[in-house]
Amino acid sequence: MTATPGAGTGTPLVEVRDLEVERGERVILQVEELSVRAGETLAVVGPNGAGKSTLLLALAGLLRPTRGSIIVDGVPLVPGRELAYRRRIGLVFTSPLLLSTSVFGNVAAGLRFRGVGTAETRERVEHWLERLGIAHLRDRPASQLSSGEAQRTSLARALVLDPHLLLLDEPFVSLDSTTRAQLLDDFERLDVGTHSTRVLVTHHLREAIRLGDRLAILLDGRIRQVDTPERVMASPVDADVAALMNIQARVRGRIVASEDGLVVVDTGAGSGRDVEERAQRLLDANRAAPSADRRSS
Amino acid sequence: MTSDLVEITVLSLAVSGAATLISLLIGLPIGTWLALRRFRSRYLVLSVVNTGMALPPVVAGLVVALLLWRSGILGGLGLMYTPGAMVIAEVVIAVPVVIGLTAAGLGQLDPRLHLQLQGLGASRWQTVWWLWREARLALLAAIMAAFGSVISEVGAAMMVGGNIAHETRVLTTAIVLETGRGEFGNAIVLGLVLLALAFMINGVLTWAQQRGPKR
Q1: Cβ neighbour number for residue A241 with a 10 Å cutoff
Q2: Which CATH number covers residue B193?
Q3: What pLDDT, on the 0 to 100 scale, is given for residue B215?
């Protein structure tokens, strides 16, 4: 299945080409082509086990693919020499995975890895603690945070790096619904004024549509469709994508007959003369084969 | 007796300290590597290491003695019956302990922590350093276990050191000697010094283990 080009412009920041990841003997991810455009939020949507997290790890340069390559600014990543690239990204996992130090220490960690000076580190960390509303927790040990506070710390830890590419693996999924709504609002607000490119992995459709400029639909390790949320909703490429997007068939027309789960609709497309007769034939066929696949016609 | 006691105690500390340090230098990297890498024979290697943790000191002493004996492979070094030989034997005893406990300690961490650190831009060494930091309770336990196993060890020290007065006599071998002679008073004093030493060293390590931010 080829990926459909989506709306919007922007040069690709990261491209995935002919990527294949195997676990044991099984191919768990196979992506012919996918590009993340500068400045966009690409939401990767799919059910659990579709290969979303694997794709994200590959995009982060943290997983060596069996075949294919990740191309950054036109240059393929060289295995074993990903550090420079990793220092341009931010990565947030589902669980906050905080280090056993203070909130400040956690948010400062990435800057310290990069050798950023003490004064600049303090200034940048405090700015992001403020923006994420956790400045009052600055000196608290990470182990004493609530799940919402911990995930905010994890987000601040990634955002403070001013990443070219922010990779988010279901960052809101482990939170209760109130915290989740709050953090989603905050996250949306943070979009304004930052120009970072984001890849958000989620199995939450509403989250993807709300935050994503484009959706990449991932099913069984393959990208089925890449397009704007509107276009994916309006024209899913196949029944699987439609099912994932929770799209039910809509047919405009007049209901001619309905019986035992079968609805016969006159869409006006046919000649229109023998509608009743054809409807009767469909109802008879339905009665004769009650377990058969029932469809509206 | 007092000057002898000081001499024996100092030698005990020096031999055990050197052996612990060397076994850390060898065991920490290998244990870390075993914890972080996935390869086919990993379980076999871990089983060998875990068996090594239960290695009887006299067997270690025998192997080192065979190597250092005049006709042995390393006989030319002339190390037999020197503190050097005792350090070597005790390193053989302590290295599996350090490897095994390091691998187990790091294995307890969330495997994604490794990825998260790299995702934050940590270099290989920064990643390892922070993983050690996260597993510091287990690593300090590894140091304590290694030191404990060498300071209390007597079989190998006797075999390759020979318990020579003013040369290779340490607390444990001196206790054996004094007990054999029926000098129980001396043996008890030496035993108390050994206990006090072990307590002090472990006290410092326990303090280091338990301080810092609450987990």
Answers
A1: 20
A2: 1.10.3720.10
A3: 44
Measured CA to CA, the distance from residue A42 to residue A233 in angstroms comes to 16
Span of A244-248, B47-51, B91-95, B144-148 with lowest mean pLDDT: A244-248
A47 assigned to some structural domain: yes
Domain of A282 in residue numbering reads as 254-288
Q: Does residue A6 belong to any structural domain of this protein?
A: no
* A83 CB-side CA count, 13 A: 11
Closest Cα in chain B, distance from residue A137 (Å): 14
Residue B88 lies in a domain: yes
Residue pointed to by tokens 């495997």: B111
Which of A57, A114, A144 minimises the CB distance to B121? A114
Structural domain span for residue B153: 2-210
Could you give the CA distance from residue A2 to residue A33 in angstroms, rounded to a whole number?
Answer: 8
pLDDT of residue A6: 41
Give the pairing type, strands A197-202 and A41-45.
Answer: parallel
Nearest to B120 among A100, A144, A157 (CB): A157
Q: Is residue A155 included in any domain, yes or no?
A: no
Of the CA atoms within 13 Å of residue B36, those in its CB half-sphere come to 16
- Per-residue pLDDT tens over the stretch B146-189: 999 999 999 999 999 999 999 999 999 999 999 999 999 999 99
Instruction: Indicate yes or no: CB of A161 within 8 angstroms of CB of B121.
Output: yes
Q: Tell me how far apart the alpha carbons of residues B168 and B173 are, in angstroms, rounded to a whole number.
A: 9
pLDDT single digits (tens) B112-138:
999 999 999 999 999 999 999 999 999
Q: How many separate domains does chain B show? A: 1
Q: Is residue B120 in a domain?
A: yes
Distance from CA of B20 to the nearest CA of A (A): 27
Question: Are A240 and A186 members of one domain?
Answer: yes
CB burial of residue B56 (10 Å; 0-12, 13-18, 19+): exposed
Most distant pair of Cα atoms in chain B: their distance: 65
Strand partners, A91: A167
Report the predicted TM-score, pTM, of the whole model to 2 decimal places: 0.80
Residue A131 placed within a domain = no
Which chain B residue shows the shortest CA-CA distance from A94?
B112
